[in-house]
Design a protein that fits this description.
The protein has 438 residues and is of the alpha+beta class. The protein is built from 10 helices and 10 strands. Strands 6, 7, 8, 9 and 10 form a 5-stranded mixed β-sheet that branches. The longest helix is centred in the C-terminal third of the chain and has 145 residues.
C-alpha cells in the first residue's frame, strides 16, 4: 500500500511537471516566432499557438492521483493515531497500525507512540533508552524538613482508546508536559508524611507503593497507563548520612556482639555437652570392661570344669600309650630274637646245603676229569703225535697244524707244508721289520 501511495503521488507530480514542460516549450516557440517577426526574417516560421486548455486540463487531472495518495494514511507498528479535521476538530475513534483513508486536504492524522516509555530522574542504568530523563534526582522534603534526592523511574504508555481525549485536552508532548509534573507532585506530597529513616529503610517499600498508586490514579484520568514505579536510589543529606552511617555501624557492632555472645554461649553449651558425653562414655566403657572381665572369669571357670576331666583323660591316655609302647617294644624284641634264631638256623641250613652241593660238584667234576684224562690217555696212547700238536697250539695261536702220515709217502702234502712254512717265515719277517703304529 505504501508503494501504491508513492506511485500515485509520483504520477500526479509527473503529470504536473509534464504540463509545465509542454507549456514552457510552447512559450519558447512563440517567443522565437515573435523575435523572427521583429527582425524580419524571411521566410517566417509558422506561428505556434500556446496550448493553454490542454495544459490546464493536464494540471487539473494530475490532482486526481495526488489527492488519492493524500487520502491514504499508513499508521506504523507501535503507534496509533486520531483524525484531526480542519472543520470539525478531533474526530472520535482511534486509528490502529495499518492502512486508513481520510479526506485529503481536510483531515490529517495525529500519531502517538503507544509503546512503553520511561520517565527517569537521576542517572539511570541505561539513560539513553529512557524517553524522558533528567540527570538530577527528584528533590523532596521529609517530615523533619530535610531534603532528599530520589532516583525514580516510571514506566508508562498511552492508552490507545483515549487518544482523541489526549489530542483535544492535554498539552503536547505528553512525556514532557504531563508526566514529570504529576510524578514530582506525587512524590513530594508523600515524602512529607515520612521521616528520612522511614523513606530510606523502614518503610521504603510502603512509600513506593503509595506513590505508585497516586501516580497511577492521576495519570489514568488523562489516558496514561502506568505499569511500574521504581525507587532506585535515595540521596541522603550529608550530615544525616554521616550520622546514619555511625548509627548503622554501632548497630552492626551491637549485632556483632550479640552474635559473638550467642556463639560463646553455644560453645559453652557444647563444651558441657561434650563433657557429659565423655563422662557417660567413660562410665559405659568401665561398665563394659567390668562386664567383659566377669564374663571372662565365668568363661574360664566353665572352661576349667571341662578342662580338668579332659586333662585326666589325656594323662590316662598317655599312660595307656606308654604301656602299649612298652608292650610293643617287648614284643618287638622277642620277635627280633626269634627272627634272628630263625635266620641263624636258615643260614646254617643254607651253608650246609651249599657245602653238600659243592662236595657233589667236586665229586662229579673229579669223576668227569678222571674220565676225560682216561680217555685222553687212551687217545695219546693210540696217537702219540697229538702231544706235539697240543704243545704247538699252546705255544702260539698263529701256528697252523696239519696231521700227515709219518711214512712220507704223500709228496704233495710235503710240498704244501714246505711252502706254507716259507710263507709263515716271510710274514713273520715283515712283521718284525714293520715299526709299531701309535
Amino acid at each position: 500500500m505504501l508503494f501504491l501511495k508513492d506511485l500515485l503521488m509520483w504520477c500526479g507530480v509527473g503529470m504536473i511537471v509534464a504540463a509545465v514542460a509542454v507549456l514552457a516549450y510552447d512559450l519558447y516557440l512563440n517567443l522565437q516566432y515573435r523575435q523572427a517577426v521583429a527582425v524580419g526574417v524571411a521566410p517566417l516560421p509558422p506561428a505556434h499557438e500556446v496550448r493553454w486548455r490542454g495544459m490546464l486540463g493536464l494540471a487539473l487531472l494530475a490532482w486526481g492521483p495526488i489527492l488519492l495518495a493524500l487520502s491514504i494514511v499508513i499508521v506504523p507498528s507501535g503507534t496509533a493515531g486520531v483524525r484531526v479535521s480542519q472543520t470539525e476538530g478531533t474526530l472520535a475513534g482511534t486509528l490502529y497500525p495499518g492502512v486508513h483513508f481520510v479526506t485529503p486536504l481536510v483531515q490529517r492524522v495525529a500519531l502517538f507512540d503507544t509503546r512503553d516509555q520511561l520517565f527517569t530522574t537521576g542517572f539511570a542504568e541505561d539513560h539513553k533508552k529512557a524517553t524522558t530523563a533528567t540527570s538530577e534526582p527528584l528533590q523532596v522534603q521529609s517530615k523533619e524538613g530535610l531534603s532528599l534526592g530520589l532516583a525514580i523511574t516510571v514506566r508508562y504508555r498511552l492508552d490507545p482508546r483515549h487518544l482523541d481525549y489526549i489530542q483535544n485536552n492535554l498539552p503536547q508532548p505528553i512525556e514532557k508536559e504531563i508526566v514529570p509534573p504529576v510524578v514530582a507532585s506525587a512524590w513530594r506530597e508523600l515524602a512529607s508524611n515520612y521521616t528520612v529513616r522511614d523513606v530510606f529503610s523502614a518503610k521504603r517499600e510502603e512509600v513506593r507503593q503509595r506513590a505508585a498508586g497516586v501516580i497511577t490514579q492521576k495519570l489514568a484520568a488523562d489516558g496514561i497507563v502506568v505499569k511500574e514505579v521504581m525507587l532506585r536510589d535515595i540521596q541522603l543529606p550529608p550530615e544525616y548520612a554521616k550520622g546514619l552511617e555511625e548509627l548503622l555501624l554501632k548497630e552492626q557492632q551491637n549485632d556483632q556482639m550479640a552474635v559473638d555472645t550467642e556463639i560463646q554461649a553455644k560453645q559453652v553449651k557444647i563444651a558441657e555437652l561434650q563433657a557429659e558425653a565423655t563422662k557417660a562414655q567413660q562410665v559405659k566403657q568401665a561398665e563394659g570392661e567390668a562386664q567383659v572381665k566377669v564374663l571372662q572369669a565365668k568363661g574360664e571357670a566353665d572352661a576349667m570344669q571341662f578342662t580338668l576331666p579332659l586333662k585326666q583323660k589325656q594323662i590316662e591316655q598317655s599312660k595307656l600309650e606308654a604301656e602299649a609302647r612298652k608292650e610293643a617294644t617287648v614284643k618287638n624284641a622277642e620277635a627280633m630274637a626269634e627272627a634272628k634264631v630263625i635266620d641263624s638256623k636258615a643260614e646254617m641250613e643254607r651253608r650246609k646245603l651249599l657245602a653238600d652241593a659243592e662236595a657233589d660238584r667236586i665229586r662229579v667234576t673229579a669223576a668227569a676229569d678222571a674220565e676225560r684224562m682216561k680217555s685222553e690217555g687212551d687217545i695219546l696212547k693210540q696217537n702219540p703225535l697229538l702231544i706235539n700238536k697240543i704243545v704247538a697250539e699252546r705255544l702260539s695261536d698263529k701256528l697252523q697244524i696239519m696231521m700227515v702220515p709219518a711214512d712220507g709217502k704223500f709228496f704233495f702234502a710235503n710240498d704244501v707244508l714246505r711252502s706254507m712254512n716259507m710263507a709263515n717265515h716271510s710274514s713273520q719277517a715283515q712283521d718284525a721289520e714293520t715299526p709299531p703304529q701309535n
